[in-house]
Amino acid sequence: MESIISMKNVSLIRENRVILKDINWEVKEKEQWVILGLNGSGKTSILNIVTAYEYPTKGEVSVLGHKFGQTNLPELRKQIGFVSSSLDRFSQTLKSETVEDIVISGKFAMIGLYENVTIEDREQAEQIMASFRINHLKGKTFDTLSEGEKRKVFIGRALMTKPKLLILDEPSVGLDILAREDILSLTKEIIENQQCHVLYVTHYIEEIVEELTHVLLLKEGQIVAAGQKEDILTDELLSETFQLTMKVHWENKRPWISIHKNIGWTKFAKVESNI
C-alpha cells in the first residue's frame, strides 16, 4: 500500500524550544485522518511540515512519495490543497472578487486572479460549484456571502488543482450548526468522489464523520496515540490528550463526549461540545 505521509523520528526545535519530539506517523492509501489536540500540541507544526513550509530539525519526511531533501518542494505543494479559517484574513482583499474567480484562482495558488483563464478553467470551476451546491452564487462577490458559503468557496478553490491530499484545518470554526453540518456533508462527498486523501484538523470530536477513518492524538509535541478511530477515541486516551476526565459514546457512527466534573458527569449538548 502506498504511503501518503511518512514521518520517521521527526523533531522540530525552534529557539531552543522543542515543538515536536520523535514523531513517527504514517498515512497510508485509502486512510482519512483526523488530528486532535489542545492548542500548542503541535498540530500546526505537523501541517507546516506536511505542506513543506517548515523543515524538521531532524528525522525523515515523505509526502505523496516525495522525500524531503530529494524533491522539488514547490512542485509538491501543487499536489496539496489547503483550507483554513485563517484564509478569512484575505476577506478584505477578496471582497470584490466573484465566487467563480476565487475558485479559479486556486489553479494558480494565488489570492486574487491575475493569470489568463481558459474556457476549460471556467468549466472546471462551474463543475466544482455545482457539486458543492453553490452554483447559484455565480457572479456574486465575496463580501456578500455568508461565512458557510465562504468556506465552501475556499474548499472549491483548493480542489481546482485536483490535489492528491486535501488539508482541512478547522474548516467549521465560527460557523453555526447548520453551516457546520453542511461542511461535514461536503467533506464526506469529497472523500467519496474526489479521490483524494483528507487530513482534517479540529477541536470538536463530534465532527469525526464516518468517512474519517483514523485519528492522531497530540499532546505537547508528542504523539499520544495514532490509529483507527475506534481504537483511539477511548475515554483513557482522550482524557490524557485533553487533560480532562472524558467519556465517549457513539451515535450515528459519530463520537460524542461528556466531561467529568466534581459534581458528576455533565453531558454537553451534542451541538455545543467543545474541546
From TrEMBL:
Q: Which GO terms describe its molecular function?
A: ATP binding; ATP hydrolysis activity
The record's listing under Gene3D superfamilies reads: P-loop containing nucleotide triphosphate hydrolases
SUPFAM superfamilies reported for this sequence: P-loop containing nucleoside triphosphate hydrolases
The organism sits in which domain of life?
Bacteria
| All residue ranges annotated as the ABC transporter domain in the record | 5-245
Q: Which Pfam families match?
A: ABC_tran (PF00005)
Report if keyword Transport is assigned: yes
Keywords of the record: Transport
Protein name, UniProt field: ABC transporter related protein
Instruction: Specify the species.
Output: Bacillus methanolicus PB1
